[in-house]
Amino acid sequence: MKELLVVRDLHVQVEGESILNGVNLTVPAGEVHALMGPNGSGKSTLANVLMGHPAYQVTRGRVVFRGRDVTGAPPDDRARAGMFLAFQYPVEVAGVSVLNFLRTALSAARGRDVPVREFRRLVGEKLSGLGMDMSFARRNLNEGFSGGEKKRNEVLQMSLLEPALAILDETDSGLDVDGIRLVAGAVERARGAETSVLVITHYMRILQHLEPDRVHVMVGGRVVRSGGPELAAELESSGYAALREPDPERAAVR
């Protein structure tokens, strides 16, 4: 199976503090993977590092995307290569409409200007799939948006840009049941032979509408366990407490 994203022995610091402590993760092309874990486990840090956020220092390990080592690549380079991150806390941009932002982003991703008629048709289709209309896209980017509207806007961007790898950082937080169902539907539509999705979440809610190919659990800055969809159900009933202990391999080394 073709590997789209490969993370190997990734160690990351922020202002001298270690946050990631040897993350290993592989996401094949065409699969949906869920990354779960308690608060402070490093999930959002990993998402930001994958997109090249400059505040995070990689001290060891590497990130390989589409066969290319992108560990030191800037965010715009990764975006052009086909990476996309839906932020946990999307920012407001006054004076820039959602439409203008989306057209600029799509033109940059395609490397050419997108004709207005084609662009509006695409946006209309994606909005309809998320239960929204064109009036939403005429508003300023995230300005005055509710938490749920901000998250839907992130998913709208993903749907329009059609990245090779979409990283959704707790996109389900702040959404009601209908919103979660719509987001899950958008993720399912994004899944394809050359498209993968990494869903970062605390809870089982979105996974009840979206069956991932693999579930990974992060605790203490590393992936401590991976499995099928049944792993998420197990965590829902037992929690993360049992996974906070060192794994047998590390205990043996000590």
Task: Give structural notes.
The chain has 254 residues and is α/β, with parallel strands linked by helices. It has a single domain, classed as Rossmann fold (3-Layer(aba) Sandwich). Helices cover 35% and strands 29% of the residues. It contains nine helices and twelve strands. The protein has helices at residues 43-50, 75-81, 98-110, 116-129, 134-137, 147-161, 177-190, 230-238, 248-253; strands at residues 3-14, 17-28, 32-36, 57-65, 68-69, 83-86, 93-97, 140-141, 165-169, 196-201, 214-219, 222-227. Strands 6-9-10-3-11-12 form a six-stranded mixed beta sheet, with helices on both faces. Strands 2-1-4-5 form a four-stranded antiparallel beta sheet, with helices on one face. Strands 7-8 form a two-stranded antiparallel ribbon. Helix 6 (147-161) runs parallel beside helix 7 (177-190). It is globular, with a radius of gyration of 18 Å. The chain starts with a strand and ends with a helix.
